[in-house]
Amino acid sequence: MDIGRSFTTKIVTIERYILGQQTGFPEATGVLTNLLYDLALSAKIIASHTTRAGLAEILGSTDEENTHGETVQKLDVFAERTIYRMNDHTGRLAVMASEEEEGIIPIPPNYPTGKYVLLYDPLDGSSNIDYNVSVGTIFAIYRRKTVDGPGTLEDCLQKGRSLVAAGYIIYGSSTMMVYSTGQGVHGFTLDPRVGEFLLSHPDIRIPEKPKYYSVNQGYQPRWSPGVQRYTQWLQGDNDLGMALSLRYIGSLVADFHRNLLAGGVFYYPAEGVGAKAKGKLRLLYEAAPLAFLAEQAGGYASDGYQPILDIEPTGLHQRVPLFIGSRTLVEQAETYLRSESV
Ligand code: FDP
Asked: Which of 51, 99, 276, 281 is exposed most, by the fewest CB atoms within 10 A?
């Protein structure tokens, strides 16, 4: 028997896959391909640190010194710096913006600027780091709006419908990178033995039959009547023929990832007046890129009234209520929320 031929599954690295997708576009210059590959490399570096996060040298304040006399960086600061340093000098980007930084992040004047804009949340769910719970990185790539020179705020304030690519990396029981360039959603698992992301989840589609709803139920008293009724609908007062199970990690990437694969809805609604009057999550760094992936996987994302992808951003750190996941479940949320405003 020829043992070699009995293995029929192809091994596809993320590099090969990204390049393969590019060949469908003869006009492509390879810049986006390389940008995605740089993000995969950043992910490997960040993953190599998240797996050591329980070690004392990683935890602690940003200005503590470790035993080597080096300044200890918290993991979220480390992730932020890694993505920045991987992308500031490549000539692929006009400007960046990060959830961790107040303003836009210009490309240093000694480096060339390029045609893309990178927005990222370097370590989402970071309140979970100290408890060994999955965290993630989210990224969004747009084409610049300005023609040349240093990128501007205007380049960063684009609605999700204009996204060229988006994705996330989940640092969990394994590390996965999931991304879309508008040709479906594809997932790659990092094989730590060879240091490569290998195609493990081609063309992800949210399953027809949803399993889970995910929300911080502790905040229920602060929700509007529409969100309360919607939650009861998910719990069994519905025509789905089953009550959905509640699963809530409190780490957006992990909650989204599970529901993408299992079917379900994640929501972080508005909470009346006060700090969370518009919810908690950020439009540009969290909601829009994940909404892009949800739609590419056959799902949907809404603020309760309109598609997240159609919201015109007005500020870098703008918050937005988010309902995301299986299309029918998100549309049902819209029905309940709209009915409360008539
Ligand atoms: P975190 O504060 O830990 O960074 O947007 C940040 C986020 O986590 C999301 O990842 C997560 O879904 C949400 O906040 C959790 O918020 P609650 O603790 O209010 O449920």
From this structure: 51
